[in-house]
Amino acid sequence: MAKELKELTNREENYSQWYNDLVVKAGLAENSAVRGCRVIKPYGYAIWEKMQRALDQMFKDTGHENAYFPLFIPKSFFSKEAHHVEGFAKECAVVTHYRLKNDPEGKGVVVDPDAKLEEELIVRPTSETIIWNTYKNWIQSYRDLPILCNQWANVVRWEMRTRLFLRTAEFLWQEGHTAHATREEAIEEAERMIRVYADFAENWMGVPVIVGHKSPNERFAGAEDTLTIEALMQDGKALQSGTSHFLGQNFAKAFDVQFTNREGKLDYVWATSWGVSTRLMGALIMAHSDNNGLVLPPRLAPIQVVMIPIYKGEQELAEVTAKLSAIAAELKKRGISVKLDARDNVRSGFKFAEYELKGVPVRLAMGPRDLAGGTIEIARRDTLTKEVVPQEGLADRIEGLLDEIQANIYNKALKFREGMMTPVDTYDEFKRVLDEKGGFVLAHWDGTPETEERIKEETKATIRCIPVDAPDEEGVCIYSGKPSQRRVIFARSY
To answer: Are 328 and 440 in the same domain?
Structure first.
């Protein structure tokens, strides 16, 4: 394992390679035989499962129910909302045939040309169209509203340049799709769900985020407004980590979803959609980890405490393991996930390095001397510090320590982000900060898509969001010199 760690690229020398190395060496994921797709390994999937469980409960606590809709969407559905299809057309995977047959020349299997579909099917890049076609059958009256549905699923967006977790041709996510009787209810829903995402990011992932509106250029295809949470990674680049969309009546009109309102008149339904994906795994890795491996917040760590016996011979192993097993049982009663690693075919130093690489928050080590003296060694992953403490009261100490580590990981990320937020007033200063420092750049913008596009072309920086709490501030656009009422957040991004 010492050799493995030496092969982990230094974060400061090559952040991109460091990230790729870490995803693979920590056993989170690996590339597959299918270009652009990846295998999420058990340890990585265990983190995703903890994310799912937490988010799923948050959704249910806000009145949502889970459902499931088809993977395949008729091509004609995408023609009904022009802006939506334009946004996804270049990323769609298309099913044209439904059968294979043996090659007459004996060269394996071929597509049967007689099995061509009458209408091509799109592998879902997102589900608005199939869901709103379904909602048409569910909604007749205001009494049928609201509909608050979420689905956990996979989607396909045919990306040409992929990166583990951050951008892959197939990825896992959840997508909420809600229907409402009024505009106000739908806007309230979109705002509620972006706050749920912000709560999860900060209190579970330990990642501080900025909540804001996307510029019209950056909105979801088919939305009237897109809310986003934007996080900052340790290399100074932004990562969009979750979005919530107010769709207005666009999809209801496209699929003719009308209802009789309280006044007895026909009206179109108001809609939202919102989602986060396994991209959150990338955010978790890049926001906290270091040159020794992963740093996981305890609330999402598959293993919160690992126990390693130090021994010589089978008798010492049995005695130390028996004591550690008793401690593990007490911790498990408190809902703490514990692993006792009593493998006798690898050295304890190998185990220390392995669990450091995997980001386990707390490591306990005990040898015969500790057993006799009633002590145990505790090591923290977040600070790489360790101390010898009494075994008495250990469960209380561990509970408190996990909370302390969770808070410390968040506060460290918050301090970093605050130091990477730079207000600028000129275009030259804007470009210099992007090149020399990175991070979130707060600048005045004249509100036009033309200016936004020119800045993007010249600097590769985009408007990450217009913060919901941005104060009014008279100024002039850094690019055009035209009047501006508030600063927006620019950054280079993933």
So the answer is: no
